[in-house]
Write a structure and sequence with these properties.
alpha+beta, D-amino Acid Aminotransferase, Chain A, domain 1, binds adenosine monophosphate, Rossmann fold, Dna Ligase, domain 1, 27% helix, 352 residues, 9-stranded antiparallel β-sheet, 4-stranded parallel β-sheet
Length: 352
Amino acid sequence: MIAPGATIGIIGGGQLGRMLSMAAANLGYRCAIYAPEPSGPAADVSARWVQGDYEDVDALKAFAHSVDVITYEFENIPVAPLEALLTPLAPHPRALATAQDRATEKAFVQAIGGRPAPWAVVSSREDLDAAIELIGTPAILKTRRFGYDGKGQARLKAAPDADEAWAAIGWQPAVLEGFVNFEREFSLLVVRGQDGAVATWDPVLNVHEDGILALSTVPAALSPETVAAAKTLAERIVAELDYVGVLGIEYFDTAAGPIFNEMAPRVHNSGHWTIEGAVTSQFENHIRAVCGLPLGSTARAAPRVEMRNLIGDQAGDWDMILSDPAAHLHLYGKGQARPGRKMGHVTKLFFE
Ligand code: AMP
């Protein structure tokens, strides 16, 4: 167990690192951030910021030496340098390796009984033709690595779109996914402690705009069978990976049950509602898990909770948002409000 008073190293210094640092501080820990940028949202609320490249093994080792335990808030970190560190690290880098590659991730989920959309590996233009033949259209071509918020994706309405789609994703190794006619999108956040204890928060209904999460609400109005299937897969994933910490899983809800979309081995944007809306937030439970403390209750704190992301200019409405006394406003301290940039979020709890 890493007792309060110790220093937690967080790799990545964005808003997730910021909210993790705040939760850690509540439990009496200090956080040190390691990130390639000179500063970031986590800088204002952490004890130390170390600027270093994710591939700089020596700098990472020096950082690891200066902290008691390490976690990460960003999944596109090279795995090998992390594996060279001797300081305790959670979640295990094998979770990163699995989630960083869409093909590895889907094969893993399928092997443990989960159901992704029909998919095929595309390593060349010829593969794309074969994949279209196999899966049909409409379909989505996604880069295997480094995709997020709908980036690195191209939609194909029909086979003649293949050239354009292949060019649009930069001729990179990819997967072709069948288009899922989903009724809604939801996510499930799961946490696993060092002792193997597992807890899930209520599934979250998510609405995306331009591929970016806009609105999350709980409860998600899903059938009990769908919730049970989503939970079972989540529990299998964390058990199979011997996972420690919070993991976010995105699903499509269909008439035939939940379809696995993707997972993130870290705290997740669709779990921000848990800060005020659950007995224990995803951030606090992640810190508890990483430090080997008992997990806190994941029960919902209100009959209905809503979390809205503030994207780009929307954060400029902070004064109007605060005119609602029930609104919990979170701003991430990012300077420039560029289009598509997550600047903050607002959570509201509803009691009737
Ligand atoms: P992703 O980055 O893979 O989560 O994709 C971003 C968004 O694109 C998702 O949240 C969905 O709204 C949509 N999307 C992704 N994959 C599919 C699919 N196979 N079928 C239908 N919509 C999809």
